[in-house]
Design a protein that fits this description.
By secondary structure, the chain is mainly β. It is built from no helices and ten strands.
């Protein structure tokens, strides 16, 4: 199955919009876009989450560890782990969730 960019669905999470691409039984992919200064507050979910930064720069806090994520960096957030983000620059990333988010 291929989902063309023009067919991505716009979804919302915590007041932010993202583009939802292919969704299978065990995973989903999303294109996330944030503006400089945006904050995604501390939260957790049962889904494992991996991402790849396409552009921008942001601070990612996972449990008690803090990272600066830049283009070309990838990251893993285990399920049921508290995490948050602060966007230093306009940023775009691809994220995969397993199982798919509801």
């Amino acid at each position: 199955m291929v989902v063309k960019r023009k067919d991505y669905r716009i979804k919302k999470f915590r007041g932010f919009s993202f583009l939802l691409g292919a969704v299978g039984e065990r995973m989903m992919v999303a294109l996330m876009e944030f503006q400089k200064g945006d904050e995604v507050g501390s939260h957790e979910h049962p889904n494992e989450q991996v991402g790849y930064c396409l552009s921008g720069r942001f601070e990612l806090k996972v449990s008690d560890k803090e990272y600066v994520v830049e283009p070309g960096d990838s990251y893993l957030i285990p399920g049921d782990t508290i995490h948050s983000c602060h966007f230093i620059q306009d940023s775009q990333m691809v994220e995969v969730f397993s199982p798919p988010r509801k």
